[in-house]
TrEMBL record:
The lineage of its organism: Bacteria, Pseudomonadati, Bacteroidota, Cytophagia, Cytophagales. One of its GO terms (molecular function) is pyridoxal phosphate binding. One of its GO terms (cellular component) is cytoplasm. Keywords: Cytoplasm, Isomerase, Porphyrin biosynthesis, Pyridoxal phosphate. It comes from Algoriphagus formosus. The modification N6-(pyridoxal phosphate)lysine is found at residue 267. It is found in: Cytoplasm. Pathway: Porphyrin-containing compound metabolism; protoporphyrin-IX biosynthesis; 5-aminolevulinate from L-glutamyl-tRNA(Glu): step 2/2. This is Glutamate-1-semialdehyde 2,1-aminomutase.
Length: 431
């Protein structure tokens, strides 16, 4: 495969952009080789600068649930553009998208739009702190909530991939207010609560974490967190930036029937534009300025073009509820196909899947938390990633990420993915 243009661009990019990329995982550091530079994307495919086509398994890290450049989103954006790109003043579309999110996401009674998942989680914990008058938060080891200071402590995703789960530049003062617990371990939460009685404002987690690779909540775990937070007056925040509108219309909270106090959203609600949101119970959200004392603002928040893209996406999902059955089918076909091929070849690697998200871990042990995820053979993953890329399948360039499938994957394309998987598994285990 000729990727000469990507190589040329990456060499040049490194002179002007730190590491040559605007977000670390894109640099392919964890898997070796040069990143491919993307020229365009359509449906199930992305195309690099040499016009090679790849089947998409990341889909912009989640937003492109219907595949790339979907006509309903494209047309909605083009139409919105006719009226201008930003006003910095309220618009009707913002009410429409807020109403739609509230009607679908169980925990959300009021919602504030922001510009990224990072802003959503940063703002949510500020509000939880303002509301409770307490400082400390609990986060799970290996979960990622964007690059806000409070979250860059034992963080997953790119931080884990780069081996920098704790970032220089985060002050000791900030770090001391972030308490850490392993995922899927209620006893650890009980212990933290005991040791920090009456001092914890919020517990934030990815209900179905995708940022240490995909892990699954054990039966009773989310319910247990809900009970502890009720008992202790802790604001329970589900970070559904990845899972919102993907695992079910109402996200993981709908799928597992556990309603948090606050929810953060992103990705799908922007239809590929830079959008995030945080929402929750009215009494908490009324603490947000200008109705309450907790300050949070944004020049481009609720941007008309971003709202048009997000609304087109959410309205489509609302009027096509069958999408979720399709996504589940696709997720099952791909992940079960992979498991079957692995077993035929004699490899009992762990595959975690929920709906249209899955991870193949290069370990035969179950992956339920950060420690078990770290047991995976990242060297072997790197070889697998390259072997799949050579065969035209674009995976997330790290063992510690989930894949995000779209409805654009036909049965024929799934067969191609599985064929590439079989060949890649044979190739990487050759010596
Ligand atoms: N929360 C979760 C669960 C995420 O997966 C991400 C990013 N992948 C974020 C927050 C941060 O979102 P953003 O990159 O838009 O700032």
């Amino acid at each position: 495969m000729n990727i000469s243009e990507s190589k040329r661009l990456f060499a040049k990019a490194q002179d002007f952009i730190p590491g040559g990329v605007n977000s670390p995982v894109r640099a392919f550091r964890a898997v070796g080789g040069d990143p491919i530079f993307i020229k365009k994307a359509s449906g199930a495919f992305i195309y690099d600068e040499n016009d090679n086509a790849y089947i998409e398994m990341i889909n912009s890290w989640g937003p492109m649930i219907l595949g790339h450049n979907h006509p309903i989103i494209r047309e909605s954006v083009i139409q919105a553009m006719e009226s201008g790109t930003s006003f910095g003043a309220p618009t009707a579309r913002e009410i429409e998208i807020a109403e739609l999110i509230i009607s679908v996401v169980p925990s959300v009674e009021k919602v504030r739009m922001v510009n990224s998942g990072t802003e959503a989680t940063m703002s949510a914990i500020r509000v939880a702190r303002g509301y409770t008058g307490k400082d400390k938060i609990i986060k799970m080891i290996g979960h990622y909530h964007g690059h806000g200071d409070s979250f860059l402590i034992a963080a997953g995703s790119g931080a884990m991939t780069m081996g920098q789960p704790d970032s220089p530049g985060v002050t000791a003062g900030t770090a001391k207010d972030t308490l850490l617990a392993p995922y899927n371990d209620l006893e650890a939460i009980e212990e933290l609560v005991r040791l920090n009685k009456g001092e914890i404002a919020a517990l934030i987690l990815e209900p179905v974490p995708g940022n240490m690779g995909l892990a699954i909540p054990m039966p009773g775990y989310l319910e247990g967190l809900r009970e502890i937070c009720n008992r202790e007056g802790i604001v329970l925040i589900f970070d559904e930036v990845m899972t919102g509108f993907r695992l079910a219309p109402g996200g993981a909270q709908e799928l597992y029937g556990v309603t948090p106090d606050m929810t953060t959203l992103g990705k799908i609600i922007g239809g590929g534009m830079p959008v995030g949101a945080y929402g929750g119970r009215k009494e908490i959200m009324d603490f947000v300025s200008p109705s309450g004392p907790v300050y949070q603002a944004g020049t481009l928040s609720g941007n008309p073009i971003a709202m048009a893209a997000g609304l087109a996406m959410l309205k489509y999902l609302q009027s096509h509820p069958e999408t979720y059955g399709q996504l589940l089918n696709i997720g099952r076909k791909v992940s079960e196909g992979i498991k079957k091929i692995n077993l035929e070849l004699g490899y009992d690697y762990t595959v975690n899947q929920v709906g249209s998200m899955y991870s193949l871990f290069f370990t035969d042990q179950p992956v339920t938390d950060f420690e078990s995820a770290k047991q995976a053979d990242t060297g072997l993953f790197g070889k697998y990633f390259q072997a799949m890329l050579q065969r035209g399948v674009y995976l997330a360039p790290s063992q510690f990420e989930s894949l995000f499938l779209s409805t654009a994957l036909t049965d024929e394309l799934i067969d191609k993915i599985l064929e590439a998987h079989r060949e890649s598994m044979i190739e990487i285990h050759k010596n």
